[in-house]
Amino acid sequence: MSTPAHALDSYRAAFEQRVQQTRESAALAQQRQQAWAAFAATGFPNTRDEDWKYTNLRRLLRRKFSAPADNPDEIEADALAGQIVEMPHASRLVFVDGVFSPHLSSTPSDHAVSLATTLRNEAQPEKTRFDNVIDIRQHRFAALNTALFTDGAVINVAPNQKQPTVVYLVFVSRENGHRVAVHPRVQVKVGNASALQLVEHHISLGAADNFVNSICEIDLGDGARVEHIRLQDEADTGFSIAGLHVRQARDSEFVSHNYCLGGALARNDVVVLLEEPGAHCTLNGLFMVRGSQHVDNHVRIDHLAMHTQSEQNYRGVADGRARGVYNGKVVVHVGADKTDAIQSSKNLLLSDKAEIDTKPELEIYADDVKCRHGATVGQLDADALFYLRSRGIDLETARALLTYAFAEDVVVKAGVDAVRDLLDTRILGLLPAQDIIREFV
Fold first, then answer.
1. Comparing C-alpha atoms, which of 364, 314, 375 is closest to residue 341?
2. For 161-203, how does the pLDDT look when each residue is reduced to its tens digit (9 = 90+)?
3. Segments forming the whole domain that contains residue 397
4. What is the band of 1 on the pLDDT scale with cuts at 50, 70, 90?
5. 194: helix, coil or strand?
6. DSSP string, 85-111
7. Residues 220 and 80 in one domain
8. Are the C-beta atoms of residues 223 and 193 closer than 8 Å to each other?
9. Is the pTM above the cut of 0.85?
10. Residue 279 has pLDDT above 90, yes or no
C-alpha cells in the first residue's frame, strides 16, 4: 500500500521550498533531486514491508510537521544543565532544532565542523557526496534526509594520528508551540591507523513532539578504530528515526553503543559493511520503554570478505503497554569464509501488557564460518527475587534492583565515564526506589 498523498504534502512542500530558496552547487542539487525522487516513488514504509512489519508509522503520519526556522531563537547554556555530559577534551558541536549553535559549542576545530559551514566554504562542493556509504534506494528515511537536510556535522580524522580524536555532538529538540521536522546529517571519515571516539546525544527541552530524522555515515580506513556512543533521550512525545551506516576497510574496528530511552516512537537502523579482511564490529544496544512507547532496533551486518568478525549484544526492557523490537540480520556473502558472527538479544517484560518482538536472522552463503545467535524474552528471575525478598528487601525495590542490573550490563560497556554516569542517573530515574538502589551500587 502506498503512502496517502496528504502524508507526503508537508515534506514535498519543504523540499520545493528548499530547492527554491537555497543556493547550492549543481551537483548537490542533483543529489537532492535524486533522493526526493527515490523517496516519493515509494513513500513511507508500512507493516507490509518485511523490514517494518513490527512498526506501524500511523502515529507519525497523522501529524503534520513544518520546517524549522533558519535562525531559531538562541537558548541559554543553563537550559542544558544536567542533560548533557561534561567532556572537556572533546570538540563539542550543538544543534538546536537542526541548526548549528556556535555559542553553545566549543571552539571550532579542524576535524569537526558544521555541515552547513563546510558546504558554504568548500572550494569544490561538487565533490561532496551523500551516497558514499548509504544506498538511498534501499533506505527511505535516508533518502528523505538527503533531500531535506540543512545542517549536521562533518568529522575528518587524518591518517596516522597517535591520539584518539574525541567529538561530542548534541542535538536539541525544543517545544515550539508547533511541530517541526529536522533532518540532521553526520558524515565521518577516519583515516588509516587513526581513532575516533564520537558521542551523539539527542535530547529535548520541554514536551517537544517534533520529528527528528537523523543520519550518521561512518567510513573507516585501514586499521582505523571508532567508538560511537548514541544516546536518544528525547521527550516521550517525540518521534525519532535514526540511520547509522558504517563501512569498514581492512583490520578496522567499529564499536557502537546505542541507548534508547525516549520518544513516543523510535526506530534505529544500523547497517555495517565489513568490506575487507580483518574488519571487526561490535554493536551493543539497550532500550527501556514504558507507557505507550515503541522502539524498533533494526540491524544488518554484511560480511563481504574473509576473516571478518561481528558481535551484537542488545538488551530491552518494556513496561506498561510499551513495545520493543529487535530485528538483527547477519549476511555472510559468497567468499566470506572464516567469518565469525554472534548475535544475542535478551529482553525483560515488566508488565503483562508490554510486548517485545525479537528476530535474529542468519543468511550464510560461504563455507567454514562460525555463526550463532540467541534470543530470550521473559520476566525477572523468580529465584533472584525470592533471594532478595528473603534478605528483607520489599518486592518493588527487588524488582527495580534486578532491572537496573540487567540494563547495567550494557551501560558499563560505554567508554566514556561521564556518559555512563548520565545513563545511570537516567535509568535510576525510570525505576522506583532509586535512593535505595544507589546504596547497593
1. 364
2. 989 999 999 999 998 878 999 999 999 999 999 999 999 999 9
3. 382-441
4. very low
5. coil
6. ---TTSEEEEEETTEE-GGGS-S--SS
7. yes
8. yes
9. yes
10. yes
